[in-house]
Amino acid sequence: MSGSSVLLSVQPSRGLVDEPFRVAVAHLPPAEPVTLHCLHRSEDRHLWEAYGHYRSDQAGSVDGSEDESFGGTYTGKERMGLLWSMRPVPGSMRGLRLRKMHVDTPMVVLISVYRGHLTEGFRERPPMASVVAERWYLAPGVKRIEVAERGVIGTFFIPPGPGPFPGMLDMWGGGGGLVEYRSALLASHGFAAMALKYLDPDKSVDSEVGIGYFETAFQIIQEHPQVMADRVGILGLSFGTAVALTVAAYSKIARPRCCVCISGSHVYPINLPRDRMMLEMARNEGIVQMDEENNVIWRHRILPITKDPNLKVDVGRIECPLLLINGDDDQNWATVESAEDIANMMSVAGNKHLLTTLTYPRAGHLIEPPFTPHIRASNFIVHHTKQKVVLLWGGETKAHADAQEHSWKRILTFLREYLYIQPSRASQAKL
After folding, report:
1. Does pTM top 0.90 for this prediction?
2. Which of 11, 78, 225, 262 is deepest in the core (most CB within 10 A)?
3. pLDDT single digits (tens) 396-409
4. Is residue 46 flagged as an active site residue?
5. What would the CATH number be for the domain defined by 143-419?
């Protein structure tokens, strides 16, 4: 779309959220200062924005992929800065987090170009040109299937085509509820992924995290006619890591082919007796720190990492490849220290060759799919007390964005390596 003679384009204007786009402006005067601006209205009706300051070249063009931003919410050559540096507009309520809750609709962003280097007042003045772009978690042809069987609640996403496909059990953290967008994106990349609801905000934790629930969910994935039963992995973030490690170490029913664990720990395995786990967690309830903005810091609650083997997953029992992903500025959980202890335990047990650890400098707790806006702190309802707090997740925006982009590529590579059936030598010889 254009305003006057200025031409603004976004290519592709419709794509997956992890697919980079190119924003370009043409027909500007040479050396013209302009601001590229991105505006998004979330599903909970809050406005988010990002912007960068550019100067046109001698041909009157700006290329957001190649040109430097001299200021704004991001600087330097940052092709996707208009997405990952989005933040609530000035005057928004505290503690917001941007999450897609309805994956059957796109994330819609309005990208505009303004004359001059602006830092505010974008909605009060007309842009030179604007264009609407759509970013999807759900690729065309991916099937979304609601699951409510054998006591398991979730959503299954099946890639297009006859299959069979490798499967994934996908679990988020202690915030509870049913979160679908990562599973939808995994299915868009060829994995039959189930987003699992395992902590209900309206119920007690005691009845929600028994290992049998996860074993049943794993079996439901295996039994689907479009899934390779022997090629099912587990992905967990935060508390989902404790679930993934517990299942991998102890279950005789659910035998994952590989596991990906993001920003979590092996402390407090879910196969502990309920009263024992709750007692141990309650003992650490008071080990909470606050930053200067009264954001709650939880990482000290499991420090130092316990030496009691009964309070940790025995990761020496794990027999499948394990990928750990952490940020070294995680302020929510002691993930780096946990990863070090996991490595030591696996080394002693002789299975450390199965472990790959990625630790990202200046990244925080919420390591999500690429170009997700970095959230340093946000509202959180503590599951067992129903208390609302603002948790500090940590991370620096640019470094965290880099960690998300790099780790997602590594996750997909890891899953393809261990979940796809490799062609036999005879088959390769025919190619």
Report:
1. yes
2. 262
3. 999 999 999 999 99
4. no
5. 3.40.50.1820
